[in-house]
Write a structure and sequence with these properties.
This protein is α/β, with parallel strands linked by helices and 313 residues long. The chain folds into 2 domains: 119 residues, Alpha-Beta Plaits, CATH 3.30.70; 151 residues, Rossmann fold. The chain is built from 10 helices and 14 strands. The strands form 3 sheets. A 7-stranded mixed sheet has the order 10-9-8-11-12-14-13, sandwiched between helices. A 4-stranded antiparallel sheet has the order 2-3-1-4. The chain has a 3-stranded mixed sheet with strand order 5-6-7. The chain is globular and about 55 Å long.
Amino acid sequence: MNWMEYTILTTTEGSDLISQVLMDAGSSGTVIEDKNDVAANQRPEGQWDIIDEAIAQRIGDDVKVTGYFEADEKLADRVAFIEAELRRLRGMDLGMDLGKLTTLRHDVAEQDWTESWKAAFKPFRLGAHMVIRPSWEQAELQPGDRVIEIDPGMAFGTGTHETTGMCVALVEKYVRPGDRVIDIGTGTGILAIAAAHMGANPVLATDLDAVAVRVAAENVRINGFEGVIDVRCGDLLEVVDTTGDVVIANIIADVIIGLARPVRERIADGGVFICSGIAAPRLDDVLDALRDADYEVKDVLTQGEWCAVAASK
């Protein structure tokens, strides 16, 4: 089986949106190469750097979002869909710079496709102590580090985006051993696994996409948390039948605003709502919605063009 590697040049703030376009077109996965992730994940001077600076030089200034498509009879339709979506995005005022939105195409054989995943995915750090690594890589660990093993060949994303990193930092701060945690829109399950590493039990992880649920469940198994994390398929709160001490939603600002009040009913008294995926220009809207729903804002993190918030009930 041959594959087509389809790359779109964008920006850090546009990478999640472009990744979603490729996934909507049927990509078997996406790789985001962003030199800003290298700077964001470096340790202080004099300590070990989890990503070598040479990677940033190789990536260059453009953020590259790459999808992979089988070279079958549907390929032309998939490409046409992507090109139509890019034309639509170029004509919209989204309040963010999406960059060049130029495209690169490359035909690859099955083995080359597999190896291209591996070449793009190196270990990196999220928060203070979570280290994300693929199964084929070794990572030098510091005291207190916890490893989350993710193989990108079966995942939508590898967690390098600022929104995930800020969420993990807040998970490390607010999740305590024995806490009940709900992760809404879990994707690959990274945040649910991070919560379990912090001692949360039980953890409920939900996602609308059945493929995401399958991927998350496999990642839960790989990381040894099958008895702790329950992965369910459902839209937002529709399969949430319990309350949590911590509820996590790494989605987008509009969804968080809509969830603020209904999520409150699923948070235990004194519990915390961790939300991310908030574009900086929408932060005030999210904070207003949280305060209107009677939350107390505890933390606001900002990295690049993105923000994350922790608010207590």
